[in-house]
Design brief:
Blueprint (H helix, E strand, L loop, with lengths): L3 E2 L1 H14 L4 E9 L3 E9 L7 E5 L2 E5 L4 H4 L3 E7 L2 E7 L5 E2 L6 E2 L1
Parallel strand pairs: 1-6, 2-5
Antiparallel strand pairs: 2-3, 4-5, 6-7, 8-9
Length: 107
Amino acid sequence: MTVTLSERAAKHVASFIAKRGKGVGVRIGVKTSGCSGMSYKLEFADEAAAEDLVFESHGVKVLVDPKSLPYVDGTELDYAREGLNEGFKFNNPNVKDQCGCGESFNV
């Protein structure tokens, strides 16, 4: 089981942590929400919780709570620029369906 960052995403996270002056990595999880059932949670983590599973990609730590891992296992978090928009993109092989706006998914 693993969750990874693309090189672009890792550079973006590392840059943001450096600007903040603190942090150990990025925390990824899921919550019940939206019309398809689940949505992603993404936040910068100042410290790892005792129950967190810790993965590392390109020198950046990815923290995942055990309840979320079955839904995000195998996911690669990318940082993409599309036209005027830029942001994180979840490439999750477990997604079977997602809502039209892309805000929620189900597995």
